[in-house]
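Form 12-C: Joint structure prediction
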Amino acid sequence: MLKVIPFTRTCIACSLLVVGLVNAAVDDEDASCGRFAPLTFGFLPLVSSEKLVQRFAPLVHHLSTALNTAIRIETAPDFDAFIRRTNNARRYDLLFTAPHLFYLARQKADYHFLVSVDAPGMSAIIVAPQQSRINTIRDLAGRKLATVDPMSLATLLVRKQLEENGLDPDTDLTLVSTPSHNASLLSSYYGATDASSLMTPPFKVASPRVRESMKIISVTEKTPHMPISAGSWIDAGCRADMKTALLAMSSTAAGRDALHEAGFKGFAPTSPERYDSLIWAAEQIDTE
Amino acid sequence: MKHAPFSFYFSLRFRLIAGVVVIEIVMLSLLVWSNITIIHTTHADRLQDTANSLIEQIADTSGSYMFEVDYASLHDYLNKVIKHKELSYVVVLDRDENPVVSLGNAPTEQWPTVDLHPSEVDDAVFNTSRSIHVSVEPMGRVLAGFSLAQMESAIHKARVRGIVIAVSEIFLTVLATVLIGLHLTRRLGVLADAAGSVGAGDYSVIVPTETADEVGKTAAAFNRMVGEVSSRTRLLEREEEKSRKLLAENRRLVHASLEVQEEERKHLARELHDELGQCITAIQADAESIRDISAGHDQRTEASAGAILEVSSRIYDVVHSMMTRLRPGILDNLGLVAALKDDISVWMQRNPQTTCRLNTTGQLDKLGERINIAVYRIIQECLTNVTKHADAGNVTIDLTGEIDRLLLRIEDDGSGMPVTAPIGGLGLIGMRERVEALSGVFRTGMAGKGFLIEITIPLQGRTGVQV
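Section 2 - Result
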């Protein structure tokens, strides 16, 4: 009995200690991210505003709940504005951007990598209608190819792919810039262009009717997937909390639902140095 | 043609026109009020629909701009929207209620409260608001004010137009009502005038029928009625004239018979006085001589002479009494008042239970024989009636001679007679005939419980019915 009582007391003391630590951790968490409220989460305008909100608002809400901090979702009218707001104005506390633009943000505005989309990587593809005579990338000579924003990774990858196949993207064919990946895909579907270029993830979630009527004629090299980063003015504690919350999303049903809406399986804690391989793309972006 | 005067305000013409005008004014006022209310509501609803539609469009369009934080594009877009003529201002607020774009006459100090409906606005601007969402994500809200000036202007125009139409309609209605009313009531007026003429005895009027409508039919019926009334009236007048002549004849006969009766009485009284009186006087003189001669030596003769004197004296009294009743000599010799006093004195001796007072006033000595005998006979008949029917304690006779008339009032305190009772006895009828023969007025009535007779006989122009 005399031995049991000290053991019980120890257990109770340990339990109280754990609870205290947990509470302290929660308090710290509130203190770390709460003082930045409301946080602004900037999303690269990959798709239309409506679709962007539909895809990523659940993720933002989930993160807001996890951090117990108000987070506002934002975007920009185009890539150029987004890049300037990211690098020059440091407008976004949290940043979801293209891999090569993250490289720029990290270099120019000291954004800290948190997580990346848990996927093997992504490529750009060139597709053409099934009945089209365009079967290889070389068949694009003299044709019109729909692209996304000139600063998008898809466009840069396609341009590189064209050059590697002996085609000058500025003279041998006509690149037609469209507002989004889906717009690029639909332009050749409706015959406005001969072919379309876009990243693989948007192609996979495109309308089956459209997707099945297209054939892939070229796939570019793979790049690391989309990263999420935080501004350097966000303290390390808060960034850690953000990272923890993002990584933990796939472990809860609510988190998985939010990820499903975003089209992701989850997030992975990869190294930010992986994005250094995209320096060639980043150098083509005129940040001024 | 004359007709009874009447107030213009109670005339059919005035009431018809005034009624229609009042109804028109009331109904059109209600109509105008109703229309203005409907117009106001319609314009207010239209403005609300416009405001809802426009602000919905602004909110939808602003969502992307707000999400993209592209305020320049939002400003460009709203610059086009603000050109809407009813839009007074538009303000887009971010999620922190900070204005990101403000155009027009936007409030600067405090955002106005949102109005529910333009009809409930009190500051000439309909303030409305919509939240801005992208998908379900709130991005802020848009606040817009819509000027009510255009709506008020439209309502004012509609109100003026409605009032002008209403006033025009009232004017035309009044004009039409007056004209139709005058036309209709003129014909009714002709009918009324014709009825007035018929009422005044002019059966020669003929109302023109003019048309076959109700008024025309009434006029035709009126003409037929006037014709019928006219013929019947003429027949009635003829019958009345006949009756009047017969009555006059009868009266003449009655008066003549009275005159004859009085004359016969007078003659009879004179004969009695002259013939029988002389004889009785002679008999008495002879009887007195016989009595004086036989006195003391022939008792039987003396007694017989005494008896003759006594009987003749009694006969004389009877004859005298008859003479007095037939024609009181005192009336011719001493006048009406003395004759009445004498007669009343004799009557009171015969009726000691009744006191009769005669009050005379004025000049009564030059009334003339016809009036004297009539008054005397009337009073005589009255006293006889009192004796027979009245059971009175007092009888008062007032006889007043005025300048132009003679007033006779006979009143008793007996059992009387209802005024409405028909005059059944010949006494009262005879009295009336005597008075009317002198162009006088005969009237009976009640004096308390007793009976009253009042007679007025004109003293000037005593024409009456001559016999």
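Section 3 - Comments
The mean pLDDT of chain B is 85. The longest strand of chain B covers residues 137-147.
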